[in-house]
User: What shape does this take?
Amino acid sequence: MKVVIVGNGPAAASAVEAFRKVDRQSEIILLSDEEHPTYAPNCMENVIRDDILPEALFYKGGERFYETNRVDFRPKSEVVRVDNLRKVVITAKGEEVSYDRCLLAAGAFAFIPPIEGVKLSGVTTAKTLDDALKIRSWVVSGKVKRAVIVGAGPIGIEDAETLKHMGVEVSVVEIFDRVLPRMLDKEMGLKYMQVLQKEGINFYLEHQVVAFHGKDWVEAVEVKPRGSDRSFFIKTDMVIISTGVRPRTYLVEGTNIEIHTDKKLGKPIGGILVNEYQQTSDPDVFAAGDIASGVDVWGNHRWIALFPPAQQAGYVAGFNMAGKRVVNEGLVDYNAVKTRGVTAGSGGIFEDAEESLSVEYENYLVKVFLREGKVRGYQFVGVPKNRRINAANPFLSKLSSWKDKVIHDKGLGLEASGVLFHTFLKLNRELGEVDKRLLKNLYIRSLGNPSHEVPLYSEV
Assistant: This one.
């Protein structure tokens, strides 16, 4: 059997690993538009700061990954179209690569709004490794003293804090009324933003970009308050556009492979539609990761462009392409921003909740959204106070007292996010009265009972 994988991100790498656990003989060809081996896409701000080791960035082992798994890795081979009737993928150079089974794992591309001046030098996105390396080179060269970031999503916020700590004057322009608008509500967003404002980052909420100005290199960003006709200018040496991503569904345009569409409006609302086996409407074509709309834990199709769901879906696709019958147990959006002065995260859905619980402890605020007694989603924001050595770190020889370890260790921050995700969202488990009492006291770690854990996928 000949397998062709389009893409080289987390979904593709996970699919390779799963496939090779079952089938060591079949041919695997992996086509990537980038030149780099698989890397961690959620660490681009670390690349800009240059505080990540190669083994962490290239988390699958770099080129060895392809050698170990007998993969014909073809970098700089951008695929532009799939012809599933002829069972070939077509590259930008016109090459046709045939397949018996194909995995579309090409991810999503950074959306660039059609703003005047967007083609000026110094205007960039920050999604890929090449983007991050370019931004770092501009900053360390001394060329960039001021930066404007368009969009206050996770990438924009992480880059804003990174640049600020590198000595750059940073302004963030966001069309919505809060930062992290898809992760946090207005109250949580304000609590989070206030910490970054104290660090010296300027925010322009409910503002839109009119144009970028400059001769050859960008020199200013023209913005205006939403609903106003009066604009003003923010001087800058660099612009990072962080206005979201779009799935590469253009790969299947003109085919009978179905795209996630709003049936009433007839408009695309996600990626390539897949079932619980990660199969598209063509059973020999699979899709996983940011390019696909998969089945979530509630049985609905959703487009979730995040690292953990991409890995999960990739494993399921890889096993099924190799002949096993494996079901994806359901995707959940689970995200956190990696800013050092303040933590924030969320998971699940908030809009259709019937009730919510809010708990505040010291500088932490956690909200849990419920529907029919089950956790539908959660949000948290926290400012670390009196940071201490993590007593649970296995490399420490001396642990703190039992009281410090258990009574005061409530498992806040990112760990709270992990517990709520794994124990309640992924398992779709009811939040009982005992759970609620523990939650109200923020003993979140105690909710994460290992006996409740189940695999991300199961064989049928």
